[in-house]
């Protein structure tokens, strides 16, 4: 379940529809909204600096399904001759949750960073002849690669060297640094949500659980419904405490542990694990050989321990995390 979004953000779907292009409500949000963007026209090439609240459907071609999740399906296709990924968000069971997921996907759409998947265009309108029913919205994104870290960790047979693990981790930390600097928390960082390009660059994807923090220094945000994946969820979120960027750092610690060990973080019943994480400070084991048999492994063990500390204030910031990773090798 994605993090809740104010009802004022869930705007009506009834907007004018043209066959060629379809404007979404995001171009009409109130002043101050993070979803306010220019509806820039595209002329032969996709604009790289700004994302558009218009999808030119005639130029979106050759859609082939490549994945699916709780709120929709991801396709590979072409848009103005560029290879893209297209996410179609549909109402599966809970329409409100589906719409929340769509809007949350756009929390980082205005950001441009080499380690964050770039949003190209998005709309809540779909031409009738292209709709499968129950459509909430469509998002066109850069195609960042067909491989994710989950597949790298558990699906590839070749060894995953420690320096490669640190390199992947550094890419993820750079993405977090940029997100957090702009007041966005991802809240679902895990290997499956980190894409790996053909050049071996990691890009953070799937912002359906993300949250835009308040700009007020005294504001504390608590989520009425917790998003994310339970194995990577920070204990303070499980306890209903305030959301902060340190929740992503906790998830980073679990993800880095998976990279180094190539093992699942926990075995057993979900509810027992959640209770033990909160009540008994349960964490994945750091007694594996990878953490004990080399100086680099010992440094990684220390960093991971800091990242998943039960006290969020003891965890490093994304800036500090990047510094610690830079001196590992």
Given the C-alpha coordinates, what overall shape results?
globular
Helix and strand element order:
EEEEEHEEEHHEEEEHHHHHH
- CA distance, first residue to last residue: 38 Å
Percent helix range: 25-40%
The main pleated sheet reads as: 5 strands, antiparallel
Count up the helices. 9
Core attributes:
2 domains, 29% helix, Transferase(Phosphotransferase), domain 1, alpha+beta, Phosphorylase Kinase, domain 1, 9 helices, 329 residues, globular, 3-stranded antiparallel β-sheet
Structural features, described:
The chain is of the alpha+beta class and 329 residues long. The chain has two domains: 7-142, Phosphorylase Kinase, domain 1; 147-326, Orthogonal Bundle (Transferase(Phosphotransferase), domain 1). 29% of the residues lie in helices and 18% in strands. Strands 3-4-5-7-6 form a five-stranded antiparallel beta sheet. The longest helix has 20 residues, at 162-181. The model is unreliable at 1-44 (pLDDT under 50).
Secondary structure elements and their pairing?
Layout: E1 21-23, E2 54-56, E3 60-69, E4 72-79, E5 82-90, H1 95-105, E6 119-123, E7 135-142, E8 147-148, H2 149-155, H3 162-181, E9 184-185, E10 194-196, E11 202-204, E12 211-212, H4 235-238, H5 246-261, H6 270-279, H7 289-292, H8 295-307, H9 318-326
Antiparallel strand pairs: 1-2, 3-4, 4-5, 5-7, 6-7, 8-10, 9-12, 10-11
Helix pairs in contact: 3-5, 3-9, 5-8
